[in-house]
Amino acid sequence: MLKILKYSFYDLMRSRWSYVYFLFYLLLGVVLLFLNNDLSKAVITLMNVIIILVPLIGTIFGIMYHYDSREFTELLLAQPIKRSSIFLGQYFGVATSLSMSLIIGLGLPFVFYGLFNSNAIWDFSLLLITGAFLTFIFTALAFMIGLLNENKIKGFGYAILLWLFMAVIYDGIFLMSILYFSDYPLDNFSLIAILTNPIDLSRVLILLKLDISALLGYTGAVFQRFFGTNFGLILSFKMLVLWVLIPTVLIWRISKKKDF
Amino acid sequence: MKKLTYIFILGFLILSVQYSWANTITVCGSCETKSIKAAIAIAEEGDTILVKPGVYKESGIKVDKGLTIIGEGLPTIDGQDKGEIVTIGADNVTLDGFKIINVGSSYTTDYASVRVVTSKNFVIQNLVLEKLFFGIYVQRSQHGKILNNKVTGEAVSEFNSGNAIHLWHSKNIEITGNDVRHVRDGIYLEFSDFIIIRSNISKYNVRYGLHFMFSNDDLYEYNTFEGNGAGVAVMFSKRIDMHHNQFRKNWGTASYGLLLKEISDAKITNNVFFENTVGITSEVCNRIEYKNNDFISNGWAMNMKGGSYATKVINNNFIHNSFDISYLGRMNDNKFDGNYWSTYTGYDLDKNGIGDVPYRPVKLFSYIVNKAPESIILLRSLFIDIIDFSEKVSPVFTPDDLIDENPKIKRIEHDRN
Asked: Is A35 exposed, middle or buried (0-12, 13-18, 19+ CB in 10 A)?
């Protein structure tokens, strides 16, 4: 598996798209920091990028890579290599290279800006960590969709739909249900709803740092406990880990059964 | 000339009379007078009592003559939880430089470390009050000064704690340079007019940093309110002038920087509201002028609950607040003009520093949060941004006449001194 991971990783490192991705983040970081002297605004923009763009790119890249390397995968399948290690190797290769582009691309401008001397370092690391998590989650989901769909067009369609659902539609439905059932206590419901969507989960994680004063305005013991203590932070991280683990296990299982 | 000579002689006589009559009585462990009570008993009007360092276990000290009582090297008066410690019941009393501890609390009587009853021209300064119930309690008194005292309580809940500085039915009192912490209300005013509150620090109080009830024509400036249940509460009062104050980090479910309830004709200028859950919340407030304030990183900068008429919000900075304005009810002749909004996205083609597109400070999402508070968890989600945008393009739910016609392009630099 490590060999395949290494191969996928180097393959991607050499590819044009990784550089484009890396340069995009580098440019974004530079523009945000050096052309706009308002750090708080920069962090808010970055948050939007991370919770919207990172999953989108993870999804598209993952599904693209899966379909593109199909011939190579078939070649590998003819060799005496375990199936799970082929697919998991490819998956980890893609996800790692994407996360690296993200972390280095955004990290460099911030390091030059003097991040290590400021106390924003924790907030910023949190941003990058959630970004990396989202990359892993959405690449895994994309691989899963790819494995389940032979048809490229269908696969792409489902992958984009998945992103759209998680990023926009889910929140719409969530809001509607909150408004519709507003006569009932909804604390637990909303927290669970947040935990089951990785994009919302990452958003809340960042909000805990950014808008804590507004979040604390809500009267409710459950929210209070979630936002007011480290409990929220720890639980969110656990859920993110779970969100990586479940699709990875599913890739492993699907790839074992799949007929090529 | 003759007249002048008379005046001169008269003045000289008065001076010499004072000198011949005003004595200084020294109190210390090894002196002739060993207690402050004893010193007061033998003192006469206008005398000075000088208290040397040490611990004086006394309570129920009644100052019934115009005396100057000075503590040298911060002597301690220990009330041993027996109730009221110092009661001032005469005009022209000065109390200076004591540490007063152990008042003892009661659920039926408001015990105070220092109580001033129906007196004029008192000065209470440089006191350190600890282990207290009420700190300095002033009732029906006038023309006094409360300066540079440090009051530190141990309040946990509202019902069994008292206020640090409490004014009731008093007039023309100056409260300057005090530091009040961990009590119920830092400074409390009830039926008190023409009070000046300046350069005080009020922190971590259970209820309010500063609290006005039925008090008119008061001024507070250059104070700092931090981490209180609510920074300042102004209720049922008229013509309060509030400027150059700092309201910081008042966090919690019912926490505000400034709470305004049924007040009118107030001026709120040059204040800084930083990281409060709600910067200002107002209810039924008329003719209030908000000018040159900075609202930075608050949950809600201003929460206006309706019933307000002729409010002016002019030249303020609204920077990185989760919500700038939350507004219930109709506009009622309220005016927003020339503010800087960090979320403003318009342009300025004629380069006059004023945006060419009017700004709508109320977002649809703040309206939704008012209806269903749980939805706060969707803050900054893409879906919310989309519906906010569509609401901005064609307002349906938010008051369409709530507009800043002249939003500033750059942050306004305010004078902070």
From this structure: exposed
* Residue numbers in B near A194 (CB within 8 A): 377
CB contact under 8 A, A214 and B372: no
Q: What is the DSSP letter of B142?
A: B
Nearest chain B residue to A170 by CA distance is B383
Q: Which residues of B touch A44 (CB under 8 A)?
A: 320, 380
Contacts of A219 in chain B (CB under 8 A): 253-254, 373
Q: In what order do the strands lie in the sheet with B230-235?
A: B61-63, B86-88, B112-117, B134-139, B165-168, B187-190, B208-213, B230-235, B256-261, B278-283, B300-304, B323-327
DSSP-based three-state secondary structure for B200: coil
Q: Kindly report the nearest CA distance between residue A204 and chain B, in angstroms.
A: 7
> Is B140 a residue whose pLDDT tops 90?
yes
Give the containing element (helix H, strand E) for B128: strand B128-130
* B277:A47 CB<8 A: no
The residue among B281, B329, B282, B335 whose CA lies nearest residue B313 is: B335
How many domains are contained in chain B? 1
**Within a domain: residue B366?**
no
Distance from CA of A257 to the nearest CA of B (A): 38
Copy the structure tokens of residue A134.
């989202």
Tell me the average pLDDT across A210-214.
69
**Identity (one letter) of the amino acid at A72?**
F
Residue B285 covered by a domain: no
The sign of the torsion formed by the CA atoms of A235, A237, A241, A246 equals: positive
What is the nearest CA distance from A251 to chain B, expressed in angstroms? 29
pLDDT above 80 for A123 = no
Please report, as a single letter, which amino acid is at residue A39: L
CATH code for the domain of B175: 2.160.20.10
**Residues of A with CB below 8 A from B256's CB?**
none
Contact (Cβ atoms closer than 8 angstroms) between residue B247 and residue B231: yes
> Is B278 in the A-facing interface, judged by CB distances under 8 Å?
yes
Residue B351 vs residues B233, B314, B336, B347, B348: alpha-carbon distances, Å: 41, 20, 21, 9, 5
Distance CA A143, CA B367 (A): 40
Specify if B78 maps to a domain.
yes
Each residue's pLDDT tens digit, B51-98: 999 899 988 899 998 999 999 989 999 988 888 899 999 999 999 999
Across the interface, whether the CB atoms of B380 and A203 are under 8 A apart is answered yes
pLDDT at B255 (0 to 100): 82
> pLDDT value at position B402?
83
Residues 6+ apart with CB under 8 A from B159: none
Q: Give CA–CA dist A182/B371, Å, rounded.
A: 8
Is B374 in contact with A167 (Cβ distance < 8 A)? Answer: no
